[in-house]
């Protein structure tokens, strides 16, 4: 892993850049795919699925019979693990429900807000290099809790665990489409795929660029959730083997993933670097992890203040605090998707089963975006009711404001009632 010692603050922006495919190139490729789907519908989807995913079938829809058969194809321990993860994710997301509260802002003037599930949502489940069935739980559980009526799942994989999780969570339809073409199909609709109101889910750079591009044309998206990343802040109380394992756990996602180690201890950095080289040899996805580690850095800093500033500037998707005073420091974190405290909180637990959502903003977007939650699947509608007495109190205020804005029709809507 490349070790950078005491970089000046002016060097941080260059140092903290994420790896990216050449932008012009990826955008024009994704635009080409979007245009092809808009024009060619299902036929274009079949051709793209054949070209990018080696799909040779005639129907992109996975039948209810195939979905129902998936349970028999999984071993009992895996089904039990999925069940446990399901319970924890359900519990944490259920706790995000907020009761409707009616507020009397002035005598006779009552306002309230109700959450309503977005009717039709599309969820993208990555399946290019690994079938991420855990993402089905992360997206379909809050979608169901929110009351979404139609949940359309797109994925390039027909792995039985994806189908099993889809059935368990109550997904409406499963379509075997991946990449930018899946996002285009959900955004514009085709003969068989319904256009949805909001698209969710992580994916590689093709998926993420496609989401950003279709969002400019009216369909809502959750956030840019691209190639996975983790930053670990470790001090001498950290266990180098644990830190190396955490870094590799995100490095194995894709060659464009990035992991960052930050420390004020040179000896800790050296120990992690050594452990990482050893553990790398054991990995099933060694080639991918090696490519990601080539994009990654260990950064030695002078003091805690610099570490905190650098991490808030980086705004990582995941931040692990393997430091003595993790709880106190966590209060000062202002930019991160999800934070993991202490030596026994591996990021993998958040990926699968502790209860938090693993669909999180990458590429510095944690500065302004949150990860997926129950809220992401709802709209908030406001309501109000004003009594005649309430209008007598509030009306003159509105009349004065409307008159000052030169909007006499607004003023009149109040005045006509006050006169009656
Ligand atoms: N941020 C998050 O919350 C989060 C969560 C889980 C996974 N991830 C990320 O999701 C990604 C999963 O990537 P993946 O590739 O395994 O699966 P994927 O499903 O995201 O992408 C696979 C699709 O990419 C398309 N594609 C591949 N090569 C292409 C090319 N040359 N031109 C056009 N399209 C092409 C294909 O259509 C294929 O179906 C990883 O980068 C991982 O880090 C992020
Ligand atoms: N780490 C990913 C989010 O960046 C989520 C995931 C799914 N499976 C394993 N990990
Ligand atoms: Zn992961």
From TrEMBL:
Enzyme class per UniProt: oxidoreductase
Transmembrane helix among keywords: no
Binding locations of substrate: 228, 250, 253, 318, 351, 405, 410
Pfam family name, one: Histidinol_dh
InterPro entries: Ald_DH/histidinol_DH, Histidinol_DH_monofunct, Hstdl_DH
CC cofactor note: Binds 1 zinc ion per subunit.
Keyword annotations from UniProtKB, A to Z: Amino-acid biosynthesis, Histidine biosynthesis, Metal-binding, NAD, Oxidoreductase, Zinc
Domain of life: Bacteria
Catalytic residues (positions): 317 (proton acceptor), 318 (proton acceptor)
Record family assignment: Belongs to the histidinol dehydrogenase family.
Role description: Catalyzes the sequential NAD-dependent oxidations of L-histidinol to L-histidinaldehyde and then to L-histidine.
Protein's name according to its UniProt entry: Histidinol dehydrogenase
Source organism (scientific name): Ravibacter arvi
Gene responsible for this protein: hisD
């Amino acid at each position: 892993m490349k070790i950078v010692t005491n970089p000046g603050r002016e060097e941080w922006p260059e140092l903290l850049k994420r790896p990216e495919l050449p932008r012009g190139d990826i955008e024009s490729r994704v635009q080409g795919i979007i245009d092809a789907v808009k024009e060619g519908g299902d036929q274009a989807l079949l051709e793209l699925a054949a070209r990018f995913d080696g799909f040779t079938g005639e129907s992109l829809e996975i039948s209810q019979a195939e979905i129902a058969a998936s349970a028999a194809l999984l071993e009992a321990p895996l089904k039990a693990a999925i069940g446990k993860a399901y319970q924890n994710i359900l519990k944490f997301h259920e706790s995000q429900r907020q009761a409707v509260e009616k507020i009397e802002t002035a005598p006779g003037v009552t306002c309230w807000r109700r959450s309503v599930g977005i009717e039709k949502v599309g969820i993208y489940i990555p399946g290019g290099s690994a079938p991420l069935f855990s993402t089905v739980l992360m997206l379909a559980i809050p979608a169901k809790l929110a009351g979404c009526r139609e949940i359309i799942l797109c994925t390039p994989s027909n792995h039985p665990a994806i189908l099993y999780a889809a059935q368990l969570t109550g997904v409406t339809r499963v379509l075997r489409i991946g990449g930018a073409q899946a996002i285009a199909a959900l955004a514009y609709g085709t003969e068989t795929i319904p256009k949805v109101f909001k698209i969710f889910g992580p994916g590689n750079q093709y998926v993420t660029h496609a989401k950003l591009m279709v969002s400019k044309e009216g369909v809502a998206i959750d956030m840019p959730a691209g190639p996975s990343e983790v930053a670990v802040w470790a001090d001498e109380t950290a266990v180098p083997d644990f830190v190396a394992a955490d870094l590799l756990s995100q490095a194995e996602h894709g060659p464009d993933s990035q992991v960052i180690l930050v420390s004020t201890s040179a000896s800790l950095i050296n120990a992690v670097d050594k452990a990482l080289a050893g553990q790398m040899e054991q990995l099933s996805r060694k080639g991918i992890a090696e490519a990601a580690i080539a994009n990654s850095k260990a950064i030695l800093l002078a003091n805690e203040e610099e570490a905190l500033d650098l991490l808030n500037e980086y705004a990582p998707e995941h931040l692990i605090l393997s430091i003595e005073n993790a709880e106190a420091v966590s209060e000062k974190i202002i930019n991160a998707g999800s934070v993991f405290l202490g030596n026994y909180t591996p990021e993998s637990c958040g990926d699968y089963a502790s209860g938090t959502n693993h669909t999180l903003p990458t590429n510095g977007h944690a500065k302004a975006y949150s990860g997926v939650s129950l809220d992401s699947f709802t709209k908030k509608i406001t309501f109000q009711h004003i009594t005649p007495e309430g209008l007598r109190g509030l009306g003159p205020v509105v009349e004065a404001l409307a008159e000052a804005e030169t909007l006499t029709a607004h003023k009149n809507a109040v005045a006509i009632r006050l006169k009656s």
